[in-house]
Specification:
Blueprint (H helix, E strand, L loop, with lengths): L3 E4 L5 H12 L3 E6 L4 H11 L5 E5 L5 H15 L4 E4 L14 H29 L2 E6 L3 H4 L5 H21 L4 E8 L5 H4 L3 H9 L9 H12 L10 E4 L6
Parallel strand pairs: 1-2, 1-4, 2-3, 4-5, 5-6, 6-7
The chain binds nicotinamide-adenine-dinucleotide.
The site of nicotinamide-adenine-dinucleotide has 27 residues, from helix 1, helix 4 and helix 7.
Length: about 240
């Protein structure tokens, strides 16, 4: 049986590129999505072009019961999960004076609790197999902080602490847990920024451009591969040198 990767929030953006990249490596893919739409069908079709299976599993990562159900669906279909990529995430940017309690809580619930929910349901299967890779998508703002993103930065910093603690817990079972911290990546999440804001951001990046979803997917591919078998508990920035 081939290897299996589960990627959350993978109908578009970074998650979709990760799914395609791992499909090219021969993984059977399970993509999690929240709502059925055209993006989902497109992502599935692009993944299947690589002659691998693609299972789509519905569920909100912030809902523990949903994650339990969709992880079971993946196990029932494929028998294992070798690689888990916790990618699903949201932003609700606002200065703290305007930020409502709900804006804070919902971002933490999707980004951080969502990462816990899926991981908690996947780890027992990896433990039984005595191997696995967990790759959590954090952000450079989880390290540097960013005005207007107290909720998002806290969730992404939380993911880093979660990653390091879990890496220590499960290393003896040969489960490797790492985080990837993207900088500014061109996706729908950042398309809300005005062009002049984007240009200003790019000016301050040593490599003078925003990143692509593929830049992030390349690092995830490495962390999923045998080439990274002595790396755990690390955070790898993919940010064009923005944060050093
Ligand atoms: P995106 O908005 O294009 O994609 C996010 C995906 O997550 C979507 O498919 C969405 O449907 C899904 N999602 C959201 N809430 C969900 C939920 N509750 N349950 C299941 N799925 C859910 O964003 P992106 O730019 O591709 O971001 C992907 C990840 O990378 C996120 O964790 C984001 O925080 C992180 N990131 C992005 C950037 C960037 O510049 N784009 C920078 C740093 C980190």
């Amino acid at each position: 049986m081939g290897k299996v990767a589960l990627i959350t929030g993978a109908t578009r953006g970074i998650g979709k590129q990760i799914a395609i990249k791992l499909a090219k490596e021969g993984y059977d893919i399970a993509i999690n999505y929240r709502r059925e739409n055209e993006e989902l069908a497109n992502a599935k079709a692009e993944i299947e072009k690589n002659n691998v299976k693609c299972l789509t599993v519905q569920g909100d990562v912030s809902n523990f019961e949903d994650t339990k159900r969709f992880v079971d669906e993946v196990i029932n279909e494929f028998g294992a999960i070798d690689v888990l990529v916790n990618n699903a995430g949201i932003t609700k940017d606002m200065l703290i004076l305007r930020m409502q309690k709900e804006d804070f809580e919902s971002v933490i619930k999707v980004n951080l609790t969502g990462t816990f929910n899926v991981t908690k349901n996947v780890v027992p299967y990896m433990m039984k197999k005595r191997c696995g890779r967990i790759i959590n998508i954090s952000s450079v703002v989880g390290i540097s902080g960013n005005a207007g993103q107290t909720n998002y930065s806290a969730s992404k910093a939380g993911i880093i602490g979660f990653t390091k603690s879990l890496a220590k817990e499960v290393a003896s079972r040969n489960i490797l847990v790492n985080a990837v911290a993207p900088g500014f990546i061109e996706t729908d999440m950042t398309s809300v920024l005005k062009d002049d804001v984007k240009a200003e951001i790019a000016k301050n990046i040593p490599l003078k451009r925003m990143g692509t979803a593929e830049d992030v997917a390349n690092v995830v591919k490495f962390l999923a591969s045998e080439d990274s078998s002595y790396i755990t508990g690390q955070v790898i920035n993919v940010d064009g040198g923005m944060l050093m």
